Amino acid sequence: MLPDETDTIAAIASARGAAARGVIRVAGPDAVRVVAGRLDEDSAGRLTAARRPVLIEGGRLRLELAGVDRTAAADLYVWPDQRSYVRQPSVELHLPGSPPLLEAALRSLTEGGARLAQPGEFTLRAVLSGRIDLTQAEAVLGVIDARGDADLATALRQLAGGLAGPLGAVREDLLSLLADIEAGLDFVDEEDVVFIEPEETLRRLGEAQQHVAAAARQASDRDAAGELPTVVIAGPPNAGKSTLLNALDQLAGVDQSAVPALVSEQAGSTRDRVSRVLSVGGVRFELTDTAGETAAVDETSLDSAAQCERARSVEHALVVLRCRPADAASPSPARAAVAGQETIELQTKSDLTDAAPPAGVLAVSASRGDGLDALLNQITAAVTELAGGEMVASTANRCREALRETEHALGRAAELVSAGADDLVALELRTALAGLGRVLGDADNDEVLDRIFSRFCIGK
């Protein structure tokens, strides 16, 4: 059950703990009346007379502190109409940042008629009023939980509409396509009236599916707790993958006390995933070493299990480092490009040869350190572009699942076009549009909203 939007709510909006200043936020139809009722006469008069956003300095808020009636100095930022964050009358009180004083001020406001806000209720009201969409609401949480500059930059781009922009364009085209198809159904008996050719329908469905697939891959396996982008080291056994992991970890690893990955002259010594968190120029990512690529015969063997784990790691990686040692007998086979994923081709053990690497391949030597700085630069550039570029993926599982549903519906629609079943094509398009609507903020599901905003702190 969603909280009542007609209630006037209040909460401490600043961080916990002592500080020079603290903030209490009040919003709702009676926000001005509630706050004015707890102020000195002069400040209350200026507040109730406000007809546009205004700053009222030098107010005095009446409160009870340690059993004694007192007043506290408060500056008031006032939005008396719908131009506030929540599109309701709102007042922010900026007071001395003493926790007991802020708690006393909050009690004073609730005694005056406000209700304590629930977690995320201010941002929920911003969504319900149309001020922001759901992806932007989740970005607010991302800003709060940001662990570094890169996390913050990604959340801010999402807050600015990084996901809503490109997928919004996809939705607009699908709406237009649906209109053409349904118009054709209305004139099904008119042989000379063709609103859209099957080839054009397939082309537009393919383009939409490609955009949605890229967004879904970026969102895959990243939940609201903020999983890091994954960079996977892949290649044949004895390609120097574990040595490379250790070398990069020494250069940029977050936990320098981590035990190094096992390095052995014997091929296939790595069976389990080994991961390290790296940070380069404020960009954090998880670097993972995988088992060497082999053709496992016995499906019950440890090698087979390791190969399955390796395949899953590569499939869900944002960036794949394809390793081929300089002393390999044959070149690496070409790997098909995957939407939303970048592959960096590496010639490892470059100290074993004087020959230049093939075009588009970076030569690295983990033992001598050759090419490692250049490799880290390429990795961070790829992670920044894919995880923090214009197509910013929401970190919530809700978005990932909805995008996958949309992608599958578009695929089914394309199959039905070839069968001439336009009525079923229209049905699948509606399913796809419903999935996009859940991502882009057409939210009419209380359970979805409850799940999102329960993760916020009070006052946001």
Automatic annotation (TrEMBL):
Residues 134-457 form the MnmE helical domain. Residues 8-131 form the GTP-binding protein TrmE N-terminal domain. InterPro entries: GTP-bd, GTP-bd_TrmE_N, MnmE_dom2, MnmE_helical, P-loop_NTPase, TrmE/GcvT-like. One of its GO terms (biological process) is tRNA methylation. Keywords: Hydrolase. One of its GO terms (cellular component) is cytosol. Pfam families: MMR_HSR1, MnmE_helical, TrmE_N. GO terms for molecular function: GTP binding; hydrolase activity. Its EC number is 3.6.-.-. Signal peptide: none annotated. Residues 230-322 form the G domain. PANTHER family: TRNA MODIFICATION GTPASE GTPBP3, TRNA MODIFICATION GTPASE GTPBP3, MITOCHONDRIAL. This is tRNA modification GTPase MnmE. It comes from Posidoniimonas polymericola.
